């Protein structure tokens, strides 16, 4: 509990005449009190023994109203036992406040995630990206950043000529009308299977035609772009993911071309004998990379460079990319070129993440050769229906909860070994377990009309829950700092465990009035924290399960 820690740090600083920071106050486990202060650092600063300093701290701080008792342990540990009501009051106040105690940041932050390519359905690889990106943008918003979430579609470059050419060869208006994504994808696959060198060349010409603004090419491209966005929208809607804006590589393509001239003039880029343009980096470990092909077309990296400059001009202070680790080198090179271009008002950061491994054969694919994101969402819903014994009909929300938690609870850089059994377990460490604990708390409240109040005395079991609730703001701060929702996910799981043990041992309905009021207050606070925590993970908090 940051507030209380700060309180203690301030009091200690004044009593000892030595610097005491928030981080100097520890949270011991078990019987050693609510907080502990190791006097060793201050002792060496003041040239006294830790034991003496600890004694001094004890004598002065024991006078404080909110300190119940102080014990000295080991070489110079000051262990604080606080007044439980005081502590609970601080926790409840914090939970009740608008920012819930979470450190508030400044600045305009762009959070880019998802960013699928044109004419292809999102696949299982987009699952972790979507879930993580969405949670990160939610977290950052709650931490006070002015967030714009962006879906930057891969809608430019040589690949897109293939779909257009495929359509010219085998396109079927009726099929496109009925199931545009299926048809586009079918054409793309067929072209890649059947195309010889000559056909590939024609496909490249079609890409060039889009870039050159040829009417027919642009018209088809626009249709395919629109169809892709509409198709993906269904998945986003199911996942409750909403973007503040949808852009794409095409938006910055023209600027990318202009940048090549600028880079050459400034001596940042070099021209090769074949007419291609490349960049070399000051950092020798970073391999040089091509910026413009010999046929004149620009590249992914060039467009990303134009995009950073665009975002800087739009006034963003932060530029966050949630993109898989595979693209580490790309982003290192991108940020290095941007620096050479003098971009320095915007802070760019690549937020990468490990792979998700599915159990073999655990999902049947509707597209034959790829597992689409939609296949995964459908499977999750079906599996959740199987466990939804009461048939309440929120299988979609429970399935999503399972998928999202499984993706978020593993720390961001680590790979995930995904298992349906674990993801859907009601026993703990899963999305449904969190949803269920939250629902259980709500259902107790429906059964009592007592108002929550800080009445009577907290027992140990209740106090454990108070303290666990009090960790919420710090956990969110840490998650924001590390750009890692796992810190929130795992905290919520631990909190739910404490809650469930409280629930089993502390009766609410059949209890004395004071106890009931106090327990109702605890339950209300548990609901507030888990509602918010689930919201930050993008997991739906339900009313019934
Ligand atoms: N469209 C790319 C892909 O599917 C991801 C884009 C990531 N964002 C970026 N600004 N480069 O691989």
CATH class of the largest domain: Alpha Beta
What is the architecture of the largest domain at the second tier of CATH?
A: 3-Layer(aba) Sandwich
Proportion of residues in β-strands = 5-15%
Spatially, the strands of the biggest sheet line up as: 6-5-4-10-11
Helix content: 55-70%
Count of beta strands: 13
Please, how many helices?
21
Q: What is the average per-residue confidence, as pLDDT, rounded to a whole number?
A: 94
Sketch the major β-sheet. 5 strands, parallel
Listed once per kind, the bound small molecules are: arginine
Count of domain modules: 3
Q: What is the third-level CATH name, the topology of the largest domain?
A: Rossmann fold
Low-confidence stretches: none
Label the structural class.
alpha/beta
Question: What is the CATH H-level superfamily of the largest domain?
Answer: HUPs
Shape: globular
Q: What does the radius of gyration come to?
A: 28 Å
CA(first)-CA(last) distance: 32 Å
Keywords: Aminoacyl-tRNA synthetase, ATP-binding, Cytoplasm, Ligase, Nucleotide-binding, Protein biosynthesis
Domain Arginyl tRNA synthetase N-terminal: 2-82
InterPro entries: aa-tRNA-synth_I_CS, Arg-tRNA-ligase, Arg-tRNA-synth_N, Arg-tRNA-synth_N_sf, ArgRS_core, DALR_anticod-bd, Rossmann-like_a/b/a_fold, tRNAsynth_Ia_anticodon-bd
Catalytic activity: tRNA(Arg) + L-arginine + ATP = L-arginyl-tRNA(Arg) + AMP + diphosphate
